[in-house]
Write a structure and sequence with these properties.
The structure is a homodimer.
Chain A (H helix, E strand, L loop, with lengths): L4 H4 L14 E13 L4 E6 L4 E6 L2 H8 L6 E10 L7 E12 L18 H6 L1 H4 L3 H23 L3 E2 L5 E2 L11 E4 L2 E5 L4 H11 L1 E9 L12 E10 L4 H22 L1 H6 L18 E3 H12 L11 H15 L3 E5 L12 E2 L2 E5 L1 E6 L2 E9 L3 H10 L8 H8 L5 E7 H9 L20
Helix pairs in contact in A: 5-7, 5-13, 11-12
GO molecular function, one term (chains A, B): RNA binding
Subunit structure (chains A, B): Homodimer.
Subcellular location (chains A, B): Cytoplasm
């Protein structure tokens, strides 16, 4: 039932095929106008796609010829089946209402199949550039991925939370935190919902959040941004990090399922319909290597001396991504057992070898996509690690209160949304899959 | 199918009734321990509710008696039907594993039906206080409301977006903006996604966003916070603000439906199952009064002289809320036609009377819950109003680019999530329905 006027009064370009022989009203943007000798074609773009409108009337032709592309039109016409055109239908005998004439021609051709300008130019004109069907398709994927994340976790009894982004102290410690003037007091932008989502395990046991995270890192790399969308989950009553990895695997499957169902058109447009990554299902799960074994594998494969390395460099992650693809047929690879020294204070040690941890990363096509793991859950353990790391316990008073009063073994993970989509479409730069990127140089649009 | 270990290994307290005669494993918090002369009762709380465990064994009784409330336990026992207890079932013959002993007694009794301390004390201990079944129920309502918002708009072809919260200039103008040190440059926290969601109408026609909004107002009122969750929507190809009001009405119905289906337990616990507001359906829609008529009504009703008032005071909104309830049987009331002078620059004037606007507020039980309206969509109109208001056009260059290149008539609305839940449960202070409030005095927890 279409109960609202906005639904009743127009059909989407994607629906035109089911209205052959009818007179329909479309609305959208003048994507392109192509005057030929005795006929002209108006390509109308709406949120769903394109429609070809055949213009024969001379007065209308002259009127449209005087409009800049991107003018906004309402078009009423008859749907005619035309087997030889790409969509199989055209709009004939149109009447056109100009809702809003563009004031200037676009700075680049939005009707080309692929946009030509370099990334920096496109980003400068992002409000327009996003109108290009391929560009906006990327953000249809983002929307579907978020919906799949939420739907999968909701079906596992996770509860959605919204935690504050203005915080009284740096969540994860460290210097990479944006400072705010908070009504005359210092405050900070949240680096992650980490501590809040842990507190909320005490309330709902299983929680998730989709929201912005902020890192004041003066990076200038193709994979870092100063603001990104973090898909966070945290759950209690686990045995160890492997329960978290199982939930993450299940969630990734749900996100990819949502892409297939909710964003089929966007996937097809981007040529990705049959190129989605495989999340291996039981009995062949996503492969897992320990950090120690990963270093040994890379050293053997590359001849590098990696003894004592505290972390994986991007080149090492790429090597591991190729190895996982080659040896396991997997786009994903879990790396577990990172050294304790490189991980935040709340990380749970590996009980069998406390110099290492129950933290993991998930590499997706050779790039770190997810970090996660088991967290400490005992009050006395937190008191100990804060002292060992010479961290100021006062900054964590509220956080510690939850642990003083009983917290179950728990863990969680965080997926970077923009990075997920970037790897999915194999975009070399995460800015290509970020709606309005924030980086060292870019605060606008 | 329960494919994950976290699902297979325990049953929720809410599921115990369907396992009579079986031995089940529960997990949760020691909500209360009540030793009587020959028997003791352990009330176990998990994310779903409470279960009563009967302890007869002396050694176990002594062990539990030595634990503080809020210790974390795993309990395995036999489900026995006991018609005379509230749930109709008990857990007998338990074995108990202490997963995490609390280090101290809670600062207030979490097992009381209603928490006793004043709001400020509760907020100081929010990580614990939220564990109380009534407190956490409020945030189950929030989660359901967000899910209903998204589901309703998704079904109307709205696309979810995530816009940046760090912005290069103040979105709505005005002084109430938090300033950030952005890698050595000044930047600001987004007051709303207003301008971004308008740009995105050019891309997806219909968009929504659920995210934080920030206002640096040194308010100290029961209905203002410095950070809140904004449920934003914006849509193109409207006739005027009435199309936006129709979509908002439809969305509110969807949110209330989601509360009934997703949060039935929380509603029952809060005594609200049959007290949800009515969103009047056609033919009796939500009543609408113009600002001018509203002032006249209030003046007539109260004897106040309101000639020339530029806006409604909170007391006036309360009066109108009672009037709508009394005269129209409605918990909601639209007020339209606000004076142009009090509304932001992007507000579309009323074509019949340009001193007034196509902006509206929606009052919910006498409090402004939603603001929305039709926006300007023509480039030349923006240039004119920015000049008239002596605003710096350079700060809006990116925003204006979208309008230079064709934007349809559009409008939208923003619902304050915390305020919606506060009015729904009739909480006198919006802090009661905010997970971790941020105000003049409170930056933690």
């Amino acid at each position: 039932m279409r109960s609202l006027a906005i639904e009743r009064e127009r059909v989407w370009t994607s629906e035109v095929g089911s209205h052959v022989g009818e007179r329909v009203t479309l609305a959208g943007w003048l994507h392109r106008f192509r005057p030929l000798s005795n006929v002209a074609f108006l390509i109308l773009r709406d949120a769903k796609g394109l429609a070809q409108v055949v213009v024969e009337e001379q007065a209308l032709r002259a009127q449209l010829d005087g409009l800049y592309n991107e003018s906004v039109l309402r078009v009423t016409g008859t749907v005619v089946a035309v087997p030889q055109v790409p969509d199989g239908v055209e709009i004939h005998d149109p009447s056109v209402e100009i809702l809003s004439a563009a004031a200037a021609p676009p700075p680049f051709d939005l009707f080309r199949p692929v946009l030509q300008p370099p990334l920096a130019t496109l980003l400068d004109h992002q409000p327009l550039m996003l109108r290009h069907p391929r560009q906006r398709a990327l953000f249809q994927l983002s929307a579907a991925a978020m919906a799949g994340f939420r739907a999968t976790l909701s079906s596992l009894d996770f509860v959605e939370i919204q935690t504050p982004k203005i915080v009284g102290s740096a969540t994860e410690g460290g210097a990479n935190v944006f400072k705010i003037d908070y009504l005359g007091r210092p405050a900070y932008l949240s680096q992650s919902p980490q501590l809040y989502k842990q507190l909320m395990v005490g309330v709902f046991e299983r929680v998730f959040e989709v929201g912005p995270a902020f890192r004041a890192e003066p990076h200038d790399t193709p994979r870092h941004l100063n603001e990104f969308v973090s898909l966070d989950a945290e759950l209690g009553f686990i045995h160890d990090h492997r329960d978290v990895m199982a939930v993450l695997t299940h969630t990734l499957r749900g996100m990819l399922d949502a892409l297939r169902t909710d964003a089929a058109g966007a996937l097809a447009l981007l040529g990705l319909a049959d190129k989605l990554p495989v999340v291996l299902a039981a009995p062949a799960e996503i492969p897992v290597v320990t950090f120690t074994d990963a270093l040994a594998l890379i050293a053997r494969g590359t001849g590098e001396d990696l003894a004592g390395e505290p972390d994986l460099a991007p080149a090492h992650e790429r090597w591991l991504g190729e190895w996982a693809r080659r040896e396991h047929g997997s786009d994903f690879l879990f790396v577990t057992g990172y050294p304790a020294a490189t991980k935040p204070f709340y990380t749970h040690p590996d009980p069998a070898n406390p110099a290492f941890t129950n933290a993991f990363d998930l590499l997706f096509r050779g790039v770190e996509l997810v970090s996660g793991g088991q967290r400490l859950h005992r009050y006395e353990d937190y008191c100990r690690v804060l002292a060992e790391r010479h961290m100021n316990e006062d900054a964590f008073t509220d956080f510690l209160e939850a642990f003083r009063h009983g917290m179950p073994p728990h863990g969680g993970f965080a997926i970077g949304l923009e990075r997920f989509i970037a790897r999915l479409v194999e975009a070399p730069n995460v800015r290509e899959t970020t709606l309005f990127p924030r980086d060292l140089h870019r605060l606008t649009p």
